[in-house]
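FAQ: What does a multi-protein file look like?

Like this. Sequence, then tokens, then the next protein.
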Amino acid sequence: MKKEKVLMLVDECYIKDCCSVCIVCVHGEENISLLNDQMRQIAIDPAINVYRAQTKTFHYNEDSIGARQSLSSWIYKMPISTYLAINKKAIFSTKQEKDTFVYQTLLPELLKPLKMKFSKRYGSDIEYLVKFENLTDKSNLDRNFFTKILETIPLCRDMEIQVVTKEEEPLTFLPDYFLGFVNHCMQGNSWSADSLKLIGNKVGLILMSEKGKKFRYERGEDIVNFLGQK
């Protein structure tokens, strides 16, 4: 029997005293193929290429407002679902401490329930590939770091891991974009109602931890209202 396939793209973000991690999930070979085809279409989209003179990759913090808005309509059509965990007031002195906290503490809050959801639906007839964007220029060390993280998360030890760069895997721009978009909104920056809905409707869950309390925002108006709050 042919197994179902799930691709998970993972990235983290640090802004001031806020740490966050994002999983963009693509379920099924057909959707993975469709997403790759959409990426090829984006590469020749004139509206996108106006903003891509300097680089072939997308990076939220470096892209202009025009580039972000042009990508919103594409992202809305993508067969993806996005999950974020955010911790506010987490203060660390080094990037290594931040990476350890984000992946040891925040990632399991998303990865374990996702694995349980797919296992409940498909049992063992499913294969997982988790692509982490590189943390350093030493991919072997990064791979060992992520492997040890998954070994500590119940049910997740059978997931295949790859460490990739933006150049190697263009789809890594997706978690980067959702992290940038959500953090941008949390800082009180304005987005049009249309853009909030286009991007917000691809987010299945945001878990927020602040001052010892945890808040849960789910797909639909719950997410859109959270992103639109000032």
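And here is the next protein:
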Amino acid sequence: MRRKRKVSFKFIYFIFTNILIALSIVAVVYVWALLYKYENCQPENHIEAEIASLHTAARDGSIWNKYTFPDTGAAQTVFESGDLREQYKAAFAADTVTYALKPGTYSENNLVYTLSDGSNTLAEITLESIGEPVTRLAVFTFQEWKVQEVAIVAQARDYTISCPEDFSITVNDILLSAEYGTMQEDGTMLYTVPGLYMVPSLEIRDHNGQVASFQRSGTRIKTEFYDYSLTIPDTLMVTVNGTEHPGELMDNGLHRHSIRMLQNPDVQITDTFGNTVSFTGGNHLPLTYCTVIVPDNYTVLVDGEVPPESVIIVADHPDYVHVQGYAENLPKLATYKIAVLKDGADISVTDKNGVPVEWDKTAHTLDLTVIRTGASMPDDLSAAVDVLGIAKKWSLFMSADLAGSNYGFWDIAQHLIDGSYLYDVAYKWSRSVDITFTSIHYLQDPAFTNITVDNFLWVTDTCFSVDIGFDKNMIVSGSPLVDTMHSTFTFVQHGGQWKLMQIKEIVE
């Protein structure tokens, strides 16, 4: 009897294992072939192949036999007089051509790529899809492509260049003249170079001949430089890289410092109070400044300290220019040009009696040339001198209404000092032809109305001033006429009497 042969487990395992290995090899080969086909279907492969073709054709000189260069006409400017075809051929022959998907051109059936040499757009390649997309293994979608068109791009563009007015620019080795530029609101020049097909070669130099850097964004070119502009009081000293910068004096008494350099400058600002700050641009500078004009017997303090003499200018007081020589110790005017490199510095002013002066601390000028005290005439002084009566008499004298020889000169002269400025004015008026042309008139009753006598001020122990105002009412040619006076009258003590020295009209 024949025995039945048994199949061993090892044999079955061996057969099963080999089948698995074979299936695995088939799967790997299939996936590899799938990946290879997927990779070959990528559109970039066609672009790179076309770039290689352009590169080869440019090197062997056959490029314009295989590709069409667009007609640019004869509109090239003086800044780009070379052969564009040769420039493009040189660009394709180099190893610097790159590509990128053109923004906004993607669709299911077409792709457009731009070719560039890093500066110029040289060409556009359009790919067209072949058939429908196919998906394998659920994740691999295949879409085959072919080159539909290779278009050389040559488009004229206008380039703008922004730089300071005193900089020079050469475009493709040709100096750019002023006719190509227009002044901008910020003080820079904007030059326009029209009709360039290729990105130009530029060299920009400052007023010292140093080469400046610049940034290009598309067709806009902007020169890189440091430009600081400061408008500050002239008592502040500005140094640039250790050298004092003079600045430019403006009509308002401030100094303008325009600092323009290619490298970042070291700008230091120093005040007269020992403060120094570094300026690195921007709109904020810690600063408190004010021009204070006061009588020299007033006290001005900055943060409780007396300002240095270098910021104080003392001059004769214009209100007492004709009183000089007739009164002693007349006050002068002191002008304090205060500028402190500090926010919120305290500038305080007190009068000759130590009384603080209230004023708007945000103002940049405090002018106490004219002081309005609001005070009335002291009774004892009013008894000694009739200031209103003298003012009225002067007004009547000026309108030829005083009785006596020479139109009443000797009547008004008793209140003046012989040889003084006002005495000479009255004397010349009484003997001039002009007084004879005074219009024929007569005074109304009352002759003087709206009378004010105020703002009394002791200038010195022997000199005072007072503001007097009134309307003198007259009839001229049958019609009423009002002559208004509002002036500051200054008196000095002379020979035991108070004499009128000066009349200054008050201009509101």
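Q: Is there any per-entry metadata?
A: Some entries carry free-text notes. For the entry above: Helices lie at 9-40, 43-60, 63-66, 84-93, 379-384, 387-398, 409-413, 421-430.
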